[in-house]
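# nightly structure sweep
# worker-07 picked up a monomer target from the shared queue
# config: single-sequence mode, recycle default, output format = structure tokens
# input follows
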Amino acid sequence: MSDAAVCAGAEEVLERYAATVFAAAYAMVKNKEDAEDIAQEVFISYVKAKPAFESAEHEKAWLLRVTINRCKSFFRSAWQRKTTGLEDDFPDTPFTPDETAVVEAVNRLPKKYRQVIYLYYIEGYATGEIAAILEMPQNTVLSQLARARKLLKTALKGEFDDV
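# output follows
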């Protein structure tokens, strides 16, 4: 495959999955700039690896797996361990007050719960697919989803009693 064809294919992949990769990274690192950096690294990895995929779903799963791995590396880095970031919100995100409460509650979850919540509810993956992406047993995914739901229920208790 020529370099021009690789670049054209990479541009198409970037257009198709940029928002998904960024959202996954942001869900993990909770900082817009760090999420942008991670997304950029993911697409650079894509161009360097020139992977072949069985389907669009396989390609998306690969990109999410690389995104999650980059986020894990981000948290292991010496820089991240020795610095404290500023709180970062999406000021332009048009959430209703109820949605904002849910987003904030999800963002307060430990990262292992945020990632399964994101993959299950936002990306629409089944628990078996999440297990494959995160390279963990399906029962672990099920346990983490149950614990995350319980934590969210506790965090949101009383906020929607009038609904």
